[in-house]
Every structure is written in C-alpha cells, then in structure tokens.
C-alpha cells in the first residue's frame, strides 16, 4: 500500500525524525533524545531514510529539526488515540507556520514531483513543510489510521503501516517479537 513514492519517502522521514529525535521509550528501554554531535548525526540519518544522500545536518539545524519532530509526534499520537481532529489541527498548524506551498520540482535526474517547502528557506522549515504536507495527504485520505504508535510495552516509537491489510501494531519486528515471546512465556508458566 503506497500513497505515492514521494509522499511515502517524506512520511518515512517524518517517522525517522520522530523516532530519532524525541525522548521516550524504544524497544523496552528508555530512549533519550540525543544531544550535541549525536543529535546532528541522528537528524542526518533520519533525513536519509527517504533514500537520498543529504548533506550532514549542522548542530543548529538538528536543534530545529528536534522541535519539528516534537510537533510531528503529536500527529502520530493523536491518530493512535483515535483523535483525527487533533491530528488535523496539528498538521494545519504546521502547514500555516511553515507557509507550505506546493510546487513541482525536478532534481537529481528524477521526474517532476511535488515539493512543499515554504518561503522561509531553512532546512528545518522546509522539512517541516514537507512532512506536514505528506501527513496531510495521509490524514486527508481513507488510510489516515495507518499512522501509529507502537503498542508494545515500554515503547512509544511511531510508524506508518504500509501493509495491505493495515494491521500493523508495532514499530519494528523487535517489538513484535518481544510481545510474542512474553505472551508465549506467560502461557507456559
């Protein structure tokens, strides 16, 4: 199940930013938001999830992207709670703040595709506009409930469910296996 190739890539970056740059729990352990050089490296890696090789993120850009990630997390958490209205409000706020404007762009030998960068011109602002618009595409369609937060105990990492049947509940196979192993042990005790 795909939204479209560009939207899929940008939603994947949104997931990567939230999971890399926000504190909480991951796979049964505390997940501290990285700082300093680790924050910049984590932000760079998150941007590269979409399949492109982007330049290294600076410390200032990483701090701005961390704020973007916190705002994006609200969208995933709202959908997971079944509160599509709050998710839409958050996306609309991001779209307004970033002055996201669709325009066609072609670069790196790729065909024309939509970009949504605002007029601000900062890297974090451009990614905030792109992520907010991609999430708006998801929320505005029939598959809005494909955004989620891991249901495994002690994990709050986010995901987008691109499976055919839309039954994903975990951020990773590791969390799924933790839950299955715990259930197996509980049955056999």
Automatic annotation (TrEMBL):
Span of domain Zinc finger CGNR: 146-187
Pfam family membership, one: ABATE
Domain of life, per lineage: Bacteria
Coiled coil ranges: none
InterPro entries tied to this protein: ABATE, ABATE_dom_sf, Znf_CGNR
Gene3D superfamilies given in the database record: Jann2411-like domain (1.10.3300.10)
Stated name of the protein: Zinc finger CGNR domain-containing protein
Annotated organism of origin: Planotetraspora silvatica
